């Protein structure tokens, strides 16, 4: 599959490295509005680099694109790829507001596009097994869900200038809670702490609840406030309680701990660990590999527009709840 990556920032470069190492792919080119960045990534992977996605799409013969731009610059390249009938992987979120999300989803559907949305937890073997157990009735009827996703203050420096905590970080757990729930979400309530993120107009920390139509509930906690010296770069947990059992997923280090003169660390072995040969592993590599395999086989993607829109609606309801200081029903969004 001849593929190009549009958006060669920190995540986009990982996409490019993963596709470059995938034997079922030919990484043709990368593109970034920062020409120097595009050249750097292209040179390191021995492919072509472009500053303009229009020029890239006009110049290259492609089967697929991966679009890892900031959500503020996602609509235009997505629609350009859709009009060319390319297989497409889109990073989440799909827009800055639910109106932007709906406009993009409607236009992609009208164009006949069926992109994969990169919710990488679906490719994490722990979450895959969890979904299977729940689907088989292994813990009975779902009663409650708890999700924790705490990052360090480096998240504020890296992400807050162009995105926000709910859209970029907690949306993964929201999507997963919606996936395992037996009933649709109907009401959200959220409280936020705003300190360092005040200058960016977003939140340092959020605690939220989500009620489902069958009476089950989910509780979410997320933040960008841990000190950079925290031993685990992402403090993650996902717990389910059913009326016949429970499931707990804890941490992103898989129990891997390192003690040395520089201190104690628990490296992230879950999301995109850098391998000894310089490659990229973890759930991100598995997710992108699934996109390639499913595109070539014409099979359904791990997550598509419908599941992305559901998660985006909950994010919007939580933001509305914070602003209005009350619970918000999903139909209000």
Gross morphology:
globular
Give the biggest sheet: 7 strands, mixed
What portion of residues belong to β-strands? 25-35%
> What are the segments in which pLDDT stays under 50 over at least 5 consecutive residues?
none
Q: Can you count the helices? A: 10
| Element order: H for helix, E for strand | EHEHEHEHEHEHEHHEEEEEEEHHE
Briefly, what CATH class of the largest domain?
Alpha Beta
Query: Helices and strands: which structural class?
Result: alpha/beta
Question: What features would you describe in this structure?
Answer:
This protein has two domains: 2-114, Rossmann fold; 121-270 and 304-332, Dihydrodipicolinate Reductase, domain 2 (2-Layer Sandwich). The chain is built from ten helices and 15 strands. The protein is 36% helix and 26% strand. The chain has a seven-stranded mixed β-sheet.
List the helices and strands and how they pair.
Elements lengths: L1 E5 L3 H12 L4 E6 L3 H11 L2 E3 L2 H7 L4 E4 L7 H9 L3 E4 L7 H13 L5 E2 L7 H11 L6 E11 L1 H6 L5 H16 L4 E9 L11 E8 L4 E10 L7 E9 L2 E6 L7 E3 L2 E3 L16 H16 L7 H20 L3 E2 L4
Helix pairs in contact: 5-10, 8-10
Give a brief rundown of this model.
The protein is of the alpha/beta class and 333 residues long. It has ten helices and 15 strands.
